[in-house]
Each structure stands twice: as C-alpha cells, then as structure tokens.
Amino acid sequence: MLTETIDLFSTSEIRETRAVGLPEFPTTRYQGSKRKIVEPLAAAFREIEFDTALDLFSGTATVSLLLRQLGKRTDANDYLQFNRTVAQLLLSVTESSIRAIKPMADLRDLLNTVRAD
Question: Hey, which of 68, 76, 95, 110 has its CA 20 to 30 A from 88?
Fold first, then answer.
C-alpha cells in the first residue's frame, strides 16, 4: 500500500498537523504507534520543563519527531536496527542538509568509484 510522503527536494509548503506543527510523514501500521495521540502528547510535554529527551523505544519515531519539533534535544533508540537507523536519520536531518543533497552528483561519484574498482 502506497502512502503519501513529503517531497524533500521541493521548496513548496510542507503540510502540518493541526495544533502541533509536526510535519506529515508516511503513516505506518506498527502496533503501538503514537501517531494518533500526538496532540495530547504535545500538550503534556509543553507542561513539563525539560531540554533533552531520550526515546528508548522509538519505533516509528513519532514521539522523537514531536519532541524535536517542540525544540527539545532528542536522541532515539530502538531494538530493531531499521527503526533505530530511521529515527536517527530523521532526527539528524536539517533544512541545510537536505539542500546540500545533490543526487545526480552523488550518483556520478558513485559510478566513477565503481568504475575505478
């Protein structure tokens, strides 16, 4: 089943969820996902004073992304390596790092490396 995703290479507007301002990202069907309770979590987090957070069971990274959106320094981890890697990637992405991606140049460099071997 295909889901709607953000075009990371577009400068057009990014749709946001209602009150939270969390950018939309592909939905998942993971059991235990917190996506449906993002707004109540945001309200609860706003009532607590803290600067850093550790999401030990990050799963789909919904809570990690919410915390980052709320301005918290956030680290994420998960038992499943795929989830852990995706969460860490999502938390490390900045607008400038996305703008620095040059897919065609990267592909050309990769092909030149393969040819050199």
Answer: 110
**pLDDT per residue as tens, the chain (117 positions):** 334 444 444 434 334 444 455 556 556 667 777 888 889 999 999 999 999 999 999 988 999 999 999 999 999 999 999 999 999 988 988 888 888 888 888 888 889 887 776
pTM of the model: 0.62
Q: Is 79 left (phi over 0), alpha (psi -120 to 50) or beta?
A: alpha
Single-letter code of the amino acid located at 30: Y
Q: Cα–Cα distance between 52 and 47 in angstroms, integer?
A: 14
Residue with tokens 């680290």: 75
The DSSP call for residue 59 is: T
- Rounded to an integer, what distance in angstroms lies between the CA atom of residue 46 and that of residue 86? 25
Rounded to whole angstroms, the Cα distance separating 2 from 88 reads 23
